[in-house]
C-alpha cells in the first residue's frame, strides 16, 4: 500500500496541467523581474576616483600624524617593551612565544640545527618552571 501511495503522489506532482500552470507562473515572474532590472540600470556605471573633501584631507594631513606621534606611537612602544620585559622575566624570546602548530613554523623548526633546537627547548622548559 505504501508503494501505491508513493506512485499516486508522484503522478499528482507530475500532472501536466499543474506543471503548465507552475511553468507559466515562473515565466511571468521571471519576465517581471527581468523588466525591472533593465529599467533601474539604464546606463553603464563607470569607475571614478574617490574625491577627498576638506575634512578628510585635514584628518589625513594634520590629525593622523599628531594622533600617531602623541598617542598611538608611544602606546605601541610601551606595549612592545612590556611584552619584551615579560618574556625576559621568563627567560624566553619572542619566537618561543609564537604558536608552534603552524605548518610553516613546523617546517622552519625542522630546518634548524640541533643545538638551536636544544636551546629553544631548554628556554621553553625554564619558562614552564617559572610560570
UniProtKB/TrEMBL annotation:
Gene Ontology BP terms: mitochondrial electron transport, ubiquinol to cytochrome c
Keywords for the protein's UniProt record, in alphabetical order: Signal
A Gene Ontology cellular-component term: respiratory chain complex III
Entry keyword Signal: yes
Cleaved signal peptide residues: 1-30
Signal among keywords: yes
Top-level taxonomic group: Eukaryota
Protein name: Uncharacterized protein
Organism listed in the record: Oxyrrhis marina
Lineage of the organism: Eukaryota, Sar, Alveolata, Dinophyceae, Oxyrrhinales
